[in-house]
Amino acid sequence: MNEITTYFEFVRPSYNNRDAGHDLRHIARIIERLDDLSVGCHPAPTRHLLFFLAAFHGLGEKLQEDSDFRQLTEDFLRQLGWKSDEIPGAFVALQRHLSAPETTEEMIVHDANFFEVTGPFGIAKAFTVGGHFNQTYERTLEIFEENVEKLVFRTPVGRSAYHNRKDYARAFIVELREELKLKRFDENLSLAE
Questions:
Q1: Which single residue of 59, 102, 132, 149 has CA 20 to 30 Å from 175?
Q2: What pLDDT is stored for residue 193 in this prediction?
Q3: Looking at residue 180, what is its pLDDT?
Q4: Read out DSSP for 74-86?
């Protein structure tokens, strides 16, 4: 079993019953992007920290709140050869990687995650999550547009790919907004005069 598979299998049960945008498949897609997003990064990522951040990407809150899971994770990391003094820093990096990534590893996983906010996949994910929360198309589109516009990618590959994906998303937004317009009805869905 290769190293990333070991991490993946350890976290597998923790992603049960998650919505489609944040389930184990999401973690698998993040892992799939790691090598591409590592290109051009300096310093080069430390593989074990990169794999930890990718696999545990959606488990930061659980690590903070569930002391049994935290202890199990610490034991797991030590079994993989982690030094005890590395583990607290990895937990801090996990909390920080989405909002304020500092290390190369955090930036790579940050971009791998936010890659799904843009482009065709981002559109599909937005409407899947919006449906899960019973949002209107209009509200989901607003949230999607806000998210696409405020993204900042941190890796060279992420920054390069973001522009094309953002353009795709913007064109989709314009077209969908036009299709959502009701010309014969007012805001209350009554026939306009």
A1: 132
A2: 61
A3: 87
A4: HHHHHHTT--TTT
Q: How far is residue 152's CA from residue 114's CA, in Å, rounded to a whole number?
A: 9
DSSP for residue 191: B
Q: Quote the pLDDT of residue 2.
A: 86
Could you tell me the mean pLDDT of each successive run of 10 residues in the chain, 193 residues long? 90 89 91 97 97 97 96 98 97 96 98 90 90 93 91 94 89 91 72 65
Q: Report the DSSP beta bridge partners of residue 185.
A: 191
| Two structure tokens written together for 121 | 């996949």
Burial of 146 (0-12, 13-18, 19+ CB in 10 A): exposed
Which residues does 189 contact at the CB level (< 8 Å), separation at least 6?
182
Distance CA 32, CA 63 (A): 24
Contact 124, 26 (CB under 8 A): no
C-beta separation of 48 from 80 below 8 A: yes
Max alpha carbon distance in the chain (Å)?
73
Q: What are phi and psi of 191, to 5 degrees?
A: -60, 130
Residues 14, 57 contacting (CB under 8 angstroms): no
Domain ranges of the chain: 3-103, 117-180
Q: Given this model, what pLDDT does residue 1 score? A: 55
Provide CATH code, domain 3-103: 1.10.472
Closest CA to 89 of 48, 150, 126, 140: 48
Backbone angles phi, psi at 166, to 5 degrees: -65, -45
